[in-house]
Structures are given as C-alpha cells and as structure tokens.
Write a structure and sequence with these properties.
Number of strands: 13
Strand content: 15-25%
Helix content: 25-40%
Strand order of the largest sheet: 8-9-13-12
Number of helices: 9
CATH topology of the largest domain: Chaperone, DNAj Protein, Chain A
Largest sheet: 4 strands, mixed
Structural class: alpha+beta
Shape: elongated
CATH superfamily of the largest domain: Heat shock protein DnaJ, cysteine-rich domain
CATH architecture of the largest domain: Ribbon
Order of helices and strands: HHHHHHEHEEEEEEEEHEEEEH
Distance between the termini: 95 Å
C-alpha cells in the first residue's frame, strides 16, 4: 500500500499538540477497531493505519524525525513499527497489533474499559530443527524408512502446550507480545532495542498463571524418535523437509519442520555415478580364458554372471535395470591369479606359459 501522510491520516494539523494527536487516534480507534468491526478487513486496515500513525507522532523524538525526513525515517521508528515510518515495504499491512497493544495498554484500557480485548499470549510457530542422518549405501539407492533420535521442543505435558495450568493471562509488562523495548544507552538520537520481555521470559504469559514445568513457554526440550522415509536415489547432502516434525509451537502454535541432511556411508564394493551403479567382478585367470561363472556384488545382493571365453581385464559387463531407479549396473572385470599356488597349480601354469610361447612362434 502507498504511504500516507500521518497528519492527514489522523486529521490533525502538522503543529497539533500531543493531546490533539491522542484525541484524533482515540476517535479513529473507536470507529475502526477490529473488535467492533469483525469480518471487515477494510476497517482493520484503517485501524492499523491510524495506530501506525499514532505510534510515530505520539513520541516527540520519532515525530521530529518524521517531520524532518518523512519517508526516510528508517531506523528512527519505534520498535514494533516494522520497516520504519515511511517504509513502503512495511506499512499497516505489517503492523504488529499485539505488540502495539502491549506498549499502549493504558491507552486502550482507558479507551475501551474492561470490555477491551487485550492481546492473548501470542501463538508462535515452532522452530525448524536441523539434523544429520547417516544411511547406508543401499538405503540411499533403493529407499527405505529409518528411525533416529532428535532433540527438540515438544509440547509441555504439564499444561498441554497452553503455557498455563488454567486460563493463561497475558503478561502485564509486555501485553502478551513476549517482547519489550528499551532505549539504547549512550545514544543521543532515538534508538531502541527490542528483546524478550524480562518479566515473562518472552512467553507472553503472566508469570502468576504460567505453568511451572515450562514457565509459560508451552514447550520443553526432549529427545524423541522420528521415522524418516528416504526416497530411492537419494544422494550425499540431500536435504529432506519433514513438515510439522520440528519443534513444537509456543502457546499451541503450529510446529516447525524437520530438515534432515543425508550422509551416505560408502559401500566397500559398490559405487555410484548418478543412477548408474559400478562394481568390480573378480574373475580367475583360468575362467577368463576358458569361460565360466563368477560372482559379483549388486544392490540386490550377490549375483552370478556368465564370463565368456577370452574375457579381458577391464572389460565391462552390463546388468540391465539393476542400478538406481531402473538404471544399469556396470561390472568391471578384474583378472585374478592365485596368490599362493600349489605345486600342481604352478606346474600347470608353466605348461600354459610354454603353450602360449609356442603359439607366438
């Protein structure tokens, strides 16, 4: 939305005193407050615009900066007025109502009395949890389910994730937002920093009603077992996102996701090039000459392959559709000779050598 002049929006002159600005905002708040216009998004938008204008103009320091710089107010805006007073990327659409109420609770209590809906402790999405999972070569290639243990936030069993044993009350110090702003020391210009509210520890729950087990957070840290389905063809470094299996949300907020980075353990016999699998097939020299059978490792266990007479070292045999996701498996022939031949074997090799020499004459 386009940035509007805050004085024009509140209907006051640029030299209006603070009381006039407050009175103008009270009038607009009464008219457009969401609790009085349920289901009317335009009323809610107008209320946010007025609240944002009041946020800037009610403070002498930010009002002076706004008068001087207008849309370039930037970092001089109060905490909670996200993006600065003139940031076209923020505006009322990004206005944090709970935070605004927390910092101006007295104004709203006076304006609406006991009927005013104070901000409830804010639901917060759980954090994403990152973990590494080591899987064997065949599981990565063929796919499969793997169980492993992670440490993350889980809903507090003492309060069921609500943050309180009874009806939770918002923290009076932060209005339920869980955040608190304070002036940065040692700075001449207006500058604030925002952090967790010290009264409630950032939970937004009145410490008097907070669950003693989780201190109002609604979550505790615990170890739990998770089942991960590894897709066929997964490779080293692949990241799997498991929606909703991350940390539990605060105050019954939605859970985060679990991000699992795969680490594939090497196999002593098998190798991969994309979806093509490679391995060596060790062929005794006699079988390489005369032909016969040899055994080789594959993704699906040991396989017996036929060796044609005269097979040479380095020859490649193809097992069709025995690789990853229907690709091929390539067997690389390695010719072997006896390391410790018997006397009889040694004599036979001498005769073969003699025959080979005469064949060359």
């Amino acid at each position: 939305m386009a940035t509007k002049d805050y004085y024009e929006l509140l209907g006051v002159a640029r030299d209006a005193p603070p009381e006039a600005i407050k009175k103008a905002f009270r009038r607009l708040a009464l008219k457009h407050h969401p609790d009085r216009n349920r289901g009317d998004p335009q009323a809610e938008e107008r209320f946010k615009e007025a609240a944002r204008a009041y946020e800037v103009l009610s403070d002498p320091a930010t009002r002076a900066k706004y008068d001087q710089f207008g849309e370039s107010l930037g970092a001089g805006a109060p905490a909670g007025a996200e993006g600065g007073a003139g940031d076209a990327g923020g505006g009322a659409a990004s206005f944090d109502f709970d935070d605004f109420v927390g910092r101006h609770g007295d104004l709203f209590a006076d304006l609406f009395g006991g009927q005013f809906h104070r901000a409830r402790p804010r639901q917060r999405r759980g954090s994403d949890v990152e973990a590494e999972l080591a899987v064997d070569f065949r599981t990565a290639a063929l796919g499969g389910a793997v169980d492993f243990t992670i440490e993350s936030a889980v809903a507090c069993s003492g309060c069921g994730g609500r943050g309180a044993r009874g009806e939770p009350r918002p923290c009076a110090s932060c209005g339920g937002s869980g955040r608190k702003s304070r002036a940065h020391p040692g700075r001449r210009d207006f500058f604030t920093i925002t952090g967790a509210c010290p009264a409630c520890g950032g939970s937004g729950v009145d410490p008097a009603t907070a669950c003693p087990d989780c201190r109002g957070a609604g979550v505790v840290t615990s170890r739990r077992q998770v089942k991960v389905t590894v897709p066929a063809g997964s490779e080293e470094g692949a990241v799997l996102r498991l929606a909703g299996l991350g940390g539990a949300g605060r105050q019954e907020g939605p859970p985060g996701d679990l991000l699992v980075t795969l680490r594939v353990n090497p196999d002593p016999e098998l190798r991969r090039d994309g979806d093509v699998v490679h391995s060596d097939v060790r062929v005794p020299a006699a079988i390489a000459v005369a032909g016969g059978k040899a055994e080789a490792a594959t993704l699906h266990g040991r396989a017996v392959v036929t060796i044609a007479p005269g097979t040479q070292a380095g020859a490649v045999l193809r097992l069709r559709k025995q690789g990853v996701r229907g690709a091929d498996h390539l067997l690389h022939v390695v010719i072997t000779v006896p390391e410790q031949p018997s006397d009889e074997e040694r004599e036979l090799w001498r005769k073969l050598a003699a025959l080979a020499a005469r064949a060359k004459e």
